[in-house]
Design a protein that fits this description.
Blueprint lengths: L1 H6 L3 E6 L9 H8 L5 H9 L3 E3 L2 E2 L12 E6 L3 H4 L9 E5 L3 E6 L16 H8 L20 E7 L2 H12 L4 E9 L7 E11 L2 E8 L7 E12 L3 E8 L6 H8 L23 E9 L6 E5 L4 H10 L7
Parallel strand pairs: 7-13
Antiparallel strand pairs: 1-4, 2-3, 2-4, 5-6, 6-7, 8-12, 8-13, 9-10, 9-11, 11-12, 13-14
Helix pairs in contact: 2-3
Length: 319
Amino acid sequence: MEDAAAEAVPEIRQFSIGEAQHGVRLDRALADQVPEFSRSYLQQLLAQGSVTLNGHAAGKPASRVKAGDVVAVEMQPTQQSQAFRPEPMPIDVVFEDAHLLVIHKPAGLVVHPAPGNWSGTLLNGLLARDPKALLVPRAGIVHRLDKDTSGLMVVARERGVMDSLVRMIAAREVSRQYLAIGHRPWSGPEQRVVEGGIGRDPRNRLRMAVVDLATQSGKPSRTDIALLDSGDAACLVRCTLHTGRTHQIRVHMASLRHPLVADAVYGGEEAAGLSRQALHAYRLAFTHPVTGEAMQFHAPLPADMENALDFWGLSYNPA
């Protein structure tokens, strides 16, 4: 019982509102300053009187704060807050400067703490690698790859750079291309544009699905798919994202009856030695948000996907 009581000791977090946050909503300011807690949880703290503003109980989440205001938050430890801990791990850094990183994520690494994966994530590794990551929400992670997807990611090292990258991704100014191996010989034209809504599969809430936005909730999506090679049992394609919906390429390939090899969630069986979904983020291009330099990076095809191509007699020319 004494251990449980010790774990329940609350933490008081106090901070001053800076000029950059002048005029923003109180719940947004809290989310920026206490990134290890979700915004909904912070709103609960507001509702129960655990947040003070200049020494008095804070108002509504939508209240606007001013530069110089002092905010204090009384927080009970949660799995989510305790997940934001530095954990040393090897990180393959492709590029680094004072403003951002480009990394090559291996298959099997979870990007961000979540239920079932509260430790051992890329975020934990970034916090251990770079003290500056503690000052940036989500350690600078601006986009994610699924656990079993390998490849390139850009990570911000400064808050202003993070905001710029988020805007650039939303404006489709960051080019992200993937290599994928699908089941079955390729069917249809060699160049295909897949568009439509993506939302939760009404028959299985753990999956996403192509949905009719007129009758179901979801978001618009677009993937350009180009055939690179095809054989008797599988096909190799290049996918260019125009939107970044959850599981987008996996859903779109399955909708074409070419589920990714080893993607069990969307009907892809393990084959040719592949035990994880055959998806690799091989190219990343963007304009550096600080220097204005055109940046372009390529990640070689992982050995497991190369071996699968050899098994099926498919060819890939990195050029």
